[in-house]
């Protein structure tokens, strides 16, 4: 090890956690194949290799460890003010003491893996290095797909390069002879997902699942990176990145921010229905953005794979994702078919007559339980995606022309509207959210759950400072070089509860209008809430939709907006005395335009 500080941290972690063995991950395919094979031999995983799918593997987690645990997620700083009202906070020295106690001997009987990884293409000015230490082979296999790992990262680090320390343990040491459970983890109240932004450090304990354990993703690329971005004048955002090419051959890049259950991955891999239009994927979840010398905002996807929700993914909703997961994919908590393939709810129109469910039990179509867990996942290399853009790993990033902010809103919010200005765009992103449906575990059906910038669980500092940072970013270049900002709602319904917009590939019609707005090929027309397409600007060629539906999709109803404004005011109480002045100014302007 050339990097003295990294070696010291590894040695210190060994002395705390007392693993039986230490493995430095080199990032090769043979290591991955060997570790996957070992998991299958140890009955921790099942090989999925059949006529549909090659070199895939299925893991089943403990039923208590199936999702991110926001109530056990902390932004740990010296002062509570710096975490703000949207984060759980424990004073950093106190939390470190508490967690150090738990890490004592926590890897006994296990192998400790050291995974150097790069978020972003190796060597890009956008990229950041992390090292994850973990005792979970599942985490190692997933990190290998989701990030760039191994020796090439150590080469970049050199002798004294900067890196984010990411420590993870499932919190289940084994005494000699003790059998290892299928999915070791701790009870929920002993789990900790802790970010220490003042130390560029992440400590995760007690969970092996997704965003709790794959520390490059939400913990680093959003929570820690949002702090780095604020200090260094860039943005770390929960955004897909889409490459859009017109029939004339002009290419533009868009970002899209959506809360969960809005089909973000589906949009990232959209097949446009409009003739001649081409859409390609740059990323489906996270964007790191910075201004370059030409004054434009450029974005990279810091990840190397997709960790997508499998349930609901089908040849109808997302054929490109279905092709992406035909090989070299890790499946988690999906069902197993009788011929050794995977299945989840809504994957096929008819249910198989028998399955092994995500907990390993027999399942029949009349079983009361779902066969796959609703938060079941696929982990697949981005390079598998048939519509991945050839330049998706460009270290220079791609220039962003427009930013989309959406939500699932059955009423009130138009299909699409453009902000009047960058500041108005920050306002519309601050009020985005989804209406709570029966699928949301909550008793507040019909209430809007606000999720500003789709970043509520991911802003690693005070939300008021986050809004101010966005506003400051808008001042770093001239206004004509800033991306345009749009509000999106694919989910508006009529009075009978039917969706007004067909969605999916037909969303390319909305993307075309956005493209035209940024190219100056259309002008739109002002509504009280923002700029909407003028008559005939939304290309409806070949679409069977009646004029009434289009009218309803763009209706700005004064009574509904009065209620919306009251709901926004209620949400803004979250900020207490620290509501950014620009937000209250934009709210006042909205009130004036709506006429209250
Ligand atoms: O992903 C979706 N998108 C974006 C696609 C690029 N979904 C699925 C959301 C769950 C994750 C959508 N669902 C979209 C959408 O645009 N729109 C809808 C609502 C809808 C559902 C079904 C139909 C129409 C709209 N129609 C029929 O099923 C025939
Ligand atoms: Mn996400």
Write the layout of secondary structure elements.
Blueprint: H1 4-17, E1 21-24, H2 29-41, E2 45-48, E3 56-59, E4 73-75, H3 92-103, E5 111-119, E6 128-134, H4 137-146, E7 148-149, H5 151-157, E8 164-169, E9 192-196, E10 201-205, H6 210-213, H7 216-232, E11 235-237, E12 240-245, E13 251-257, H8 264-268, E14 278-283, E15 287-291, E16 297-300, E17 305-309, H9 319-324, E18 330-332, E19 335-337, E20 342-343, E21 355-356, E22 362-363, E23 377-381, E24 398-406, E25 416-418, H10 422-430, E26 433-435, E27 448-450, H11 463-473, E28 484-488, H12 508-519, E29 525-526, E30 531-532, H13 547-553, H14 558-572, H15 581-594
Bound molecules: ligand TSX and manganese (II) ion.
The tally of helices reads: 15
How far is it from the N-terminal to the C-terminal residue, by CA? Answer: 66 Å
Oligomeric organization of the protein chains = single chain
Highest CATH level, the class of the largest domain: Alpha Beta
Number of DSSP E strands = 30
Please state roughly what percent of the residues sit in beta strands, choosing from under 5%, 5-15%, 15-25%, 25-35%, 35-45% or over 45%.
15-25%
Which spans of ≥5 residues are poorly predicted at pLDDT below 50?
A: none
- What is the CA-based Rg, rounded? 24 Å
Label the structural class: alpha+beta
